[in-house]
Structures are given as C-alpha cells and as structure tokens.
Amino acid sequence: MNEQNSSTCNKLSYRSLWKILGPYWWSEEKWAGRGLLAVIITLNLGLVYLSVLFNQWNRLFYDSIQNKDYGSFKTQLLRFSVLAFIYIAVAVYRLYLNQMLEMKWRRWLTSQYLERWMTHQVYYRMEVQRNGTDNPDQRIAEDIRLFTSGALSLSLGLLSSVVTLASFTGILWALSGDLSFTLSGHEIIIPAYMVWVALTYAFFGSYLTHWIGKALITLNFKQQRYEADFRFGLVRVRENAEGIALYRGEASEQENLNSRFVQILKNWWVIMKCQKRLTWFTSSYTQVAIIFPILVAAPRFFSGAIQLGGLMQIASAFSHVQSALSWFIDNYRPFAEWKSSVDRLTSFHETVCETQPKQDELACLQVNAEDSPQLSIDNLNLKLPDGRVLVNNLTMTVSPGERLLVRGPSGVGKSTLFRAIAGIWPFGSGTIGVHQSASKLSLPQKPYLPIGTLRDAISYPEKPGTFCDSEIEKSLELCRLGDFVMRMDESAHWEQVISPREQQRLAFARALLCKPAWLFLDEATSALDDATQDYLYSMIGRLLPNTSIVSIAHRADLKHFHRRILSFDSDGNHHLATLAYPKS
User: Fold this and answer.
1) Is residue 461 reached through a cis peptide bond, with omega within 30 degrees of 0 on the bond before it?
2) Domain range holding 290?
3) How many domains does the chain contain in total?
C-alpha cells in the first residue's frame, strides 16, 4: 500500500473505528464481556485508591523518621505490609482478568472477520478485483490481536490516569500552598502553584512528544506490511519448493526475498532514528520529573512551612499528577503501534464490506435454484473486472447426464464460465438456472488438497468421516492410486508431497466418492498421458452414468467422450455443435 493509501487509512480509522470497537459489547457475549470489563475497571480504580493511601502513608512514615517516633515507625511498617499485599493481589487479578477479556474479545472478532471474509467468496473476490488490500491473513491474525490488546491497555490506562489526576490534584492543591512574588511593584499570589507547575510541565512534554514522534504511526503501518510481505514470500517458497528446484530458481527467489527484507530494514532504520529522538526526550522528561517537584517544594521545607513527611507527600502527589498528565507521553510508542494496526484493520473492514456482492450485481448476473433438472443459461455475458468482454449472449441448456466439451483459445472465458455457473464470478449479466438440490463438483487443473490426513484430503469438500475406508480404498484403486491406500492416516501437505499427475488422479477419486449430479472438469487431465486420460474419462462415464459432465480441454481427442462441443473465439462469440458418436 502506498503512502497515499496509508494517509487514507489514517483518515478512515477515525470514521470507522466504532464499527470495529463497538459490536462485541452489544453481541451475544455482551454480558460476559461487560461484566469482566466492570470488574477490571473496579480493580483499576482500586489501585488508584491504594495509591492515595500510599501517598498518605508517605507523610506519616517520613514524619515518624524525622520525629524519631519508633512506635509510629513500626505501625507504619505494618500498615505498608498490609497495603502492599492488597496492592499485589489486585494487580495480579487485574492482569489475569484483562488477559481473559482480551482473548474473549479477540476470539469473537476473529470469528466475525473470518465469517465475513469467507461468506460470498469475499476472499476470492478480493483477489480477483485486486483492490490493493495486502495480506488479509496478517490482518486477521496479527492486527486483531494488536487491536484488542491495545484497545484494553490504552483505554484502561487512560481511565486510571484520569481518576488518578482527579484524586491527586485535590491532594496536591491542599498541600502545595500559595506562591507569592512581586512583579513591577505588584504582589502576585498563585494559589496551589504546584498544580499549575505540573499542568504546564505535562502540557509542554505532551506537545513535544507528539511533535517528535508523530512519524511513528505511518512508519509502523508500513513496517507491519513489509513484515507480512516477507513472511508471505517465505511461505510461497515453501509451498512451491519443487517448482523452484526444477527451475533452479534459488538465486531469483533469494534475490526476491532479500529485496523484501531490505524494505523491512530500510523502514526499521527510520523507525530506530525516530524512536531514538523520542527516547532522548521522554527519558530526559522522566528523569527530570523525579527531582523537579522536590526542587519546586524545597523552599517551603527549608522555611519550616512543611516537615519532611509533607515534602515527600507533595513529591508523591506531584509525581502522580504529572504521571497522569503524561499518559500520552508514556504511551506514545504503543499508541503509534496500535494506531497502525487500527488503520490496517479498518481499511480491511471497509474493503470486505465493499467486496460483498451488491444488489445490482446480483440482479445483473443471477444463479437461480430451479425445479428443472437441466442446466439453463440465458443471455449470459461475462466480463473481466476491467470491463473487457469475454462471453457474448450465451444461451443454451445442458440436460441431465449429458457430456459437453468447452473449447477455445486461452483467455476467452472458458474457466470464467465455470466460475459463473458456480456462482463466484460477479462481473457480467444474464441468468443461470440449476436444479435446487443438484450437487456440483469442480475439478480444476491444480486440485486443492487441504493439509491433513490423506483420508480427509480425498473426502474434501465433504467433512472428514463422510465416507468409509472401503469406499475410499476402492476409489483409489480405480484411479490407479493403490499405493496410497496404506497412507490414508498419514498427515502431510499433500500438494507438496505428491506429483501433479497423482493430484489429478486423486481428484477423480474424489469425484467417484462424491457422485455429483454435475461434474465440471477444467483441464483436469492436463498432466496425464493420453492412455490414463482415456481410462479416467471412460471410468467416470461408466460408473457415474447419471452425472452431467462439462469439460474444458485443449486436447482434440477428448471430443470423443462428449455429446456436444461449445467453441469460443477471441471476440467472445460462440458456436455449439453436436457430435454423432461419442465414446461410452
């Protein structure tokens, strides 16, 4: 995503943040989530109250030291032990329950985003439309995690800072006294001057922090993208290891991976420089804040207006007020990282919503469930996302049990026709009618084999356990894959383990198991020799006599297995011919 898109995301997040932040708290899990949040807020407020008690203890403890009151000294040590134990217990359970709520929220959000991404083949449409949303896997897996953890930690931290500010401002106001001085012959009195000093100190610190570190938001946005691109490149090498090895493409792949990592490195150096400048300032700000209140309150101590305990209580109260006012400074870096994850998540959310099929799209290209057993295509026009026409005014019917061969040059829309019949191609117009209960199965040139046991891979898309072992073994034997019978319990990444020829034969075994009413073969035998191809087509025709078969193929000899041939030319025109004597 370029910088312009990044800027768009920054604007977009403020408008769309609530669409991500709000739904969980009004979902079916709202009471559990709200209950946990209420307990966590209570524990946070409890920690603030304990901090107030520690502030009071500071005065009593140091006064007992100054007055050499041993009895009071022991009493305050005992009081500190009790307060410290309670503080530790509250802190532990606040963290524990916060992590519990974070994971519940993340699980719910992940489920929602997965459903939106998978429903209506949005994951496929996003790839087809090339809308510029990079690495949706990283956005669902990583950005949701960063969003939930950051939202809770930052919001609860801000709440604690606000309550701390309210609590200790009153204490500091009462303790700090007035500052009086003469200016141009006029006596000026500033009541509770320590409060105003803390406000001024924190205001300038926050302003300078944002001025120094504002570039981190965009830099972190880019860094997450570059990291995801690099991981994706590594996965691609692993998934295509055989092809790369056959092409001896190691040097090219390594150069590609190195170039992606260089992007990470360049952006990281910029982040480092920005963080170095920010850390110089924030560290200096924090160190000065340790001694600053004592320096400001020291004149009253040395004048005898307050005792040592009062000085330490003022210093503690000032520290809490300054810390609360400095929440933005202390959390600028995690806020920048969280903001970049919000930008990526909100842009992904908007893209998913935009990619959902629109009513006008559904009205243009309709796939209807009908009572008629035949496949009917009426005035079908298919286009590419850029508007280029592939198929013009196609009208035809395919009867149950019929065999149809689709032929034509590459790129004329043969595979797109299959996608339209399957209901996943949104670009075009016309009507496609299929029987409402008819099962369909597509065998593409490169079959999809899920990672898992071979038994589950053969059964796909049906659920594991749908077919008994004897059925699976028989289908493997019929497709000349008998050697795999003993490997059905073996779990592997099968697309990398078995050859393209074996993958295509395994897809035919899948068809024998599923026994679909409609079988669509898109260059499903391109990796096979002529003898094996003839055998598989003959077997399918013999064992699935009631299955309608629609094939895409370039091999001329396949026409003998089909009753009709639908031919396309490069202008989108078509011609339908009937053969006299198809093979059985």
Assistant:
1) yes
2) 24-355
3) 2
